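User: I'm writing a short report section on ligand binding and want a predicted complex to refer to. Could you take this sequence and uridine-5'-diphosphate and write out the structure as tokens? A short remark afterwards would be nice.
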Amino acid sequence: KPEETMSVEKSVQPHAVVVPYPGSGNINPALQLAKLLHGHGIYITFVNTEHNHRRIVAAEGAGAVRGRDGFRFEAIPDGMADADHDIGNYDLALSAATSNRCAAPLRELLARLDDGGAGAPPVTCVVVTALMSFALYVARELGLPTMVLWGSSAAALVTQMRTRELRERGYIPLKDESLLTNGHLDTTIIDWIPGMPPISLGDISSFVRTTDADDFGLRFNEDEANNCTMAGALVLNTFDGLEADVLAALRAEYPRIFTVGPLGNLLLNAAADDVAGLSLWKQDTECLAWLDAQEMGAVVYVNFGSLTVLTPQQLAEFAWGLAATGRPFLWVIRENLVVPGDGGGDALLPTGFAAATEGRRCVATWCPQDRVLRHRAVGCFVTHSGWNSTCEGVAAGVPMVCWPVFADQYTNCKYACEAWGVGVRLDAEVRREQVAGHVELAMESEEMRRAAARWKAQAEAAARRGGSSYENLQSMVEVINSFSS
Ligand code: UDP
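Assistant: Sure. The structure tokens for the complex follow:
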């Protein structure tokens, strides 16, 4: 080629199309990663589902999805009727719908973008989150390089990748229903996963809790974890020091791994935050003012993420447990936390609770969690152990009271409590005395506070120039740039 042509080609801006699974747990880290890549000169198209696009506009205003120079938004249908989104715990239905019905609209979108149809540079690569492997197939058909942002811990990925072996060794499917409740899950120890300490069957993804070999959740999660390896590279929101052994084992099998967590730390350092947040819920920022008025490290922060559902009894036990601590607390009671259409907030709290906690209670329906966790007033975090929440808690150096209920949350909880020493676990059956006791422990334990401070410092070091996550992001950007040169 004549030199001139080559240099023209080289000057084309690389363009990453980012396609998250349509839930907060994946949209948030995908947006953080997209902002970081944008800060490194990469043109971004961020693809939401139409349903979420409308929700974001309702919660944040149209500005949130209007885009910026070189950062644009697109939306594709998610294959579900709007009404079906309101039925509460719909995640598996959503997984089935996206994987069965989103391929065609995504293919069309990628082809249009690649043609320059949207005024964007040709597509350089497609970055999808976990649970979106249909998008990997689409990208492959179109000859586009891919990367997967795995939304959970490396430990969760490794255990989920081993589902096949769990089948072969006879652990799953469970032989009968009684094994779900008779202690079998806790006493069955798996000590043969490379890079992992012995772990009980109950500490790995809850999708193994089935007697049906073809259970959709089990199959889907098994396939999705293994399909990640189809991508050209795997991106993890964790840092090397946090999961050293399990990452070493993973890299031995699959070397193209970029650990770039905690993403929130990299963003803070990069100050690349000119693109708005994308919340599916209207955020309550008044709780930040409330926190400003509290003493340092005094507040118990309670939030169970975007999907967890509580029974009215569980909610009442948490409530009275918090009341018994006598401490100020910020509790995010999301709409649909108990039943579809419940509206969330104060209205769901038991009778007499408001009076019992007057003057030390702040209830919100959704908050800017990363900012809340980093607020100096927060002393501990009562969490469902979702990976983003766990990672944000580690990054903020906040001890955790863990109540895992679903999917990878058990694995994250085990690492938080045992490997990192920053958490204490509640029993599945919520009891107010234990809630109060564990909160006291997390607030008072010098050991947990010191461990949390150590991990916070390590997270900060990983995200600074020369740190593993900082350098991995640079390498990831170089790889994307190399696709377009
Ligand atoms: N989140 C938030 N405000 C809230 C609750 C959650 O910003 O009131 C964010 C939280 O910071 C995290 C994500 O939503 O980034 C939840 O992800 P996670 O993996 O913790 O749990 P999931 O919702 O997927 O169960």
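A remark for your report: Residues 23-25, 28, 303, 305-307, 332, 366-370, 386-389, 392 surround uridine-5'-diphosphate (CB under 6 Å). Residues 202 and 214 are 19 Å apart (CA to CA).
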